[in-house]
Amino acid sequence: MNVFWQVLRREMLIAFRQRADIVNPLWFFVMVVTLFPLSIGPALENLQIFAPGIIWVAALLAAMLSLERLFRDDYLDGSLEQQMLMPSSLSLVVLAKVFAHWLLTGVPLILFSPILALLLGLDMQVWQATALSLLVGTPILSLIGAIGVGLTVALRRGGVLLTLLVMPLYIPVLIFSTGIIQAAQLGMPYSGQLAMLAAMMLVAVGLAPFATAAALRVSVQ
Questions:
Q1: Rounded CA separation 142/104 (Å)
Q2: Is the pLDDT of residue 1 over 70?
Q3: At how many degrees (to 10) do helices 69-77 and 124-152 cross?
Q4: How far apart are CA 149 and CA 219, in angstroms?
Q5: Which residue intervals of the chain are DSSP H helices?
Q6: Residue among 135, 116, 118, 132 at smallest CA distance from 32
Q7: pLDDT tens across 50-83, in order?
Q8: What's the pLDDT tens digit per position in 8-35?
Q9: What are phi and psi of 189, to 5 degrees?
Q10: Residue 122 neighbours by CB under 8 Å, 6+ apart
Q11: Any stretches that span the bilayer, and where are they (predicted)?
């Protein structure tokens, strides 16, 4: 676990030195959500209908925006190979980097969700469901995305391929997350959808670091 915290601390220090990596996904998320009311009109009825899709499509695209650099800089400067030669498990290093990615992209989205809920005309109950869906769902985006990054890290222009690999795997997350918000809007219980999303997160936490480590070994070798 000492390696985990060292890698996490390193990633956070690098990110705060390059603050654009933190601001850009958050700014993109806010901008996308802000543009939708301008395009479909200010009527609260329409905004509330489209709010689940608006929020989660924007969150998905914001996560994709910062995924490509998850391992790319380490690969270019050679530190990724050094991490692969460390006596500690590579999957633990991967988990630390993915956790740092979530802290820098997922957590800011959750913190900004109250403002976006007001913008889209959502009440307190629906906002709570939205925040819960983001809290449980955004780690899955980072974990699944890490596998795609591991497979494409050695490619010069792997961004398009990364999108093609990862986007179909994001569909179940999108379905259950928007289902949580829609159920809250109708005043219905959403514990079933939330439980499914939590189960997906646990499976991703258990399997994605090992799959990513294997993908990195294949790509680097």
A1: 11
A2: no
A3: 30
A4: 10
A5: 2-17, 20-40, 44-67, 69-77, 79-84, 90-119, 124-152, 159-185, 191-220
A6: 116
A7: 888 888 888 888 888 888 778 877 777 777 777 7
A8: 888 888 877 777 667 777 788 888 887 8
A9: -70, 145
A10: 48, 51, 130, 185
A11: 21-43, 49-71, 92-120, 126-153, 160-182, 194-216
Q: Is 118 exposed, middle or buried (0-12, 13-18, 19+ CB in 10 A)?
A: exposed
What is residue 47's DSSP assignment?
H
**pLDDT mean across residues, the chain:** 84
CA atoms within 13 A on the CB side of 94: 28
Alpha-carbon dihedral sign for residues 202, 166, 106, 38: negative
106 close to 138: Cβ distance less than 8 angstroms: yes
Q: Give the DSSP per-residue string, 161-184.
A: HHHHHHHHHHHHHHHHHHHHHHHH
Instruction: In whole angstroms, give the CA distance from residue 118 to residue 189.
Output: 22
For residue 34, the Cα-to-chain-centroid distance in whole angstroms is: 20
pTM: 0.88
pLDDT of residue 158: 65
Contact of 63 with 145, CB cutoff 8 Å: yes
CA distances from 16 to 7, 13, 68 (A): 14, 5, 18
Specify the DSSP class assigned to residue 152: H
What's residue 90's pLDDT? 84
